[in-house]
Write a structure and sequence with these properties.
The chain is α/β, with parallel strands linked by helices. It folds into two domains: 17-258, Aspartate Aminotransferase, domain 2 (3-Layer(aba) Sandwich), CATH 3.40.640.10; 261-361, Alpha-Beta Complex (Aspartate Aminotransferase, domain 1), CATH 3.90.1150. It contains nine helices and 14 strands. It has helices at residues 17-25, 45-61, 76-88, 102-111, 228-233, 243-258, 261-282, 307-319, 344-361, and strands at 6-7, 68-73, 94-99, 116-122, 145-149, 151-152, 157-158, 170-174, 191-195, 206-211, 287-288, 299-303, 322-323, 334-337. The strands form four sheets. It has a seven-stranded mixed β-sheet with strand order 2-10-9-8-5-3-4, sandwiched between helices. Strand 3 (94-99), helix 4 and strand 4 form a beta-alpha-beta unit. The longest helix has 22 residues, at 261-282. It is globular and about 60 Å long. Bound molecules: 4'-deoxy-4'-aminopyridoxal-5'-phosphate (PMP). 4'-deoxy-4'-aminopyridoxal-5'-phosphate is lined by residues 11, 76-78, 103, 149, 153, 174, 176-177, 195.
């Protein structure tokens, strides 16, 4: 077997080994078709069966209610930052954004191109170390929608539960870094989107789940490729979709189902992250940066308080096969991303390395 390190990357990130092996086996020939998975037409029977199966698995795994569409888009979550307001934020209208990190700010910046943006809450004053409570969140009078980032990849914070939008505003969620990491109540959302490259598959595919009646709230003419309606009506096959990415996504969804679905995955994620936070809370050297009650189960950020010691630990860990632990520059220190496919043994290995390092550096 090829050498495989423990990969703590924030994204693109670790995928299940069984998925990588299965994808590898089908590169030269998808099943017995004699044509590789990347070489099949997106209109041919084999690929249409794959995209339909991917959609069916999403509906089953996330218990998607009737009246919602499952869409496979491109342009990453970043294009959704623009596509959502382009479709749903009228000129002169207001959308409310919960500012809990760099990605929420980027989303809000794009929305300003189309209408007004009201900051419903922000934790920027404390370097986004927490999720503001509902009591600290103030909505505008009549927002078109409320946008939030369920998990803040850079700062390692995560909403314990989703916010409740006022009036008939609908809820929009960027779930790029915690999609399908725990059970989700899709009925609470108008639009839920995520780049695939953390919990779902390779980069290049963006999953969106959209409540169909919202298409009636489209507020301006937009190019076909930026119109949700195009993807709803064309079953995400208006143009050539990222076929290989959708195939791998389908394999990841099969893996999620085999693992016991979102509640089993959620329990495993909770166990992995809790083990690491418990160690960090007891450590004399390492400290978690996110406030208790806001801590992400996906991205665990921690520091020693000394940049040189941080760098020394990152090197120490790297030499032991614990890769990509360097934190984002806006937080510094370390970030251990523990997405669905990250093995529990990798957490044990990291804690062991920290204990050893601590005994010589504390
Ligand atoms: N939102 C969040 C929460 C992210 O973590 C990222 C990527 N790290 C993005 C948006 C941007 O995603 P993309 O690169 O797919 O545009």
């Amino acid at each position: 077997a090829p050498l495989r390190h423990y990969n703590f990357s924030a994204g693109p990130a670790v995928l299940p080994e069984s998925v990588l092996e299965e994808a590898g086996r089908n590169l030269m020939s998808l099943g017995d078709t004699g044509v590789g998975i990347m070489e099949h037409s997106h209109r041919g029977k084999p690929f249409v069966a794959i995209i339909e199966r991917a959609e069916a698995l999403i509906r089953k795994i996330a218990n998607v209610p009737d009246g919602y569409s499952v869409l496979f888009l491109q342009g990453g979550a970043s294009l959704q930052f623009a596509m959502c307001p382009m479709n749903f934020l009228p000129d002169g209208g207001t959308a409310d954004y919960l500012m809990t990190g760099s990605w929420s700010k980027k989303a809000g910046k794009e929305a300003k191109l189309f209408g007004k943006v009201h900051t419903a809450c922000s934790s920027e004053a404390t370097n986004f170390d927490r999720i503001p409570s509902p009591a600290e969140t103030t909505y505008s009078d009549d927002p078109a929608y409320v946008h939030f980032t369920s998990n803040n990849t850079i700062f390692g914070t995560q909403f314990p539960t989703e916010p409740t939008p006022p009036g008939d505003a609908f809820l929009v969620c960027d779930a790029s870094s915690d999609i399908f990491s725990r059970p989700v109540d899709v009925s609470k959302y108008g639009l839920l989107y995520a780049g695939a490259q953390k919990n779902l598959g390779p980069s290049g595919v963006t999953l969106a789940i959209l409540r169909n009646d919202l298409l009636e709230r489209k507020c301006r003419e937009v190019p076909a490729m930026l119109d949700y309606k195009t993807y709803v009506e064309g079953q995400s096959l208006y143009n050539t979709p990222p076929t290989f990415g959708i195939y791998v996504l389908m394999l990841v969804l099969e893996w999620i189902e085999k693992e016991g679905g979102l509640s089993a995955i959620g329990e495993r994620n909770e166990a992995k992250a809790t083990k690491l936070y418990d160690y960090l809370d007891s450590s004399k050297l390492f400290k978690p940066t996110a406030a208790k009650g806001s801590r992400s189960l996906m991205n665990v950020c921690f520091v020693t308080g000394n940049e040189e010691t941080d760098a020394a630990f990152i090197k120490y860990a790297d030499e032991r096969g614990l890769k990509t632990l360097k934190g984002h520059r806006s937080v510094g220190g370390m970030r251990a991303s523990l997405y669905n496919a990250f093995p529990p043994a990798g957490v044990d290995k990291l804690i062991e390395a920290m204990q050893e390092f601590e005994s010589t550096h504390a």
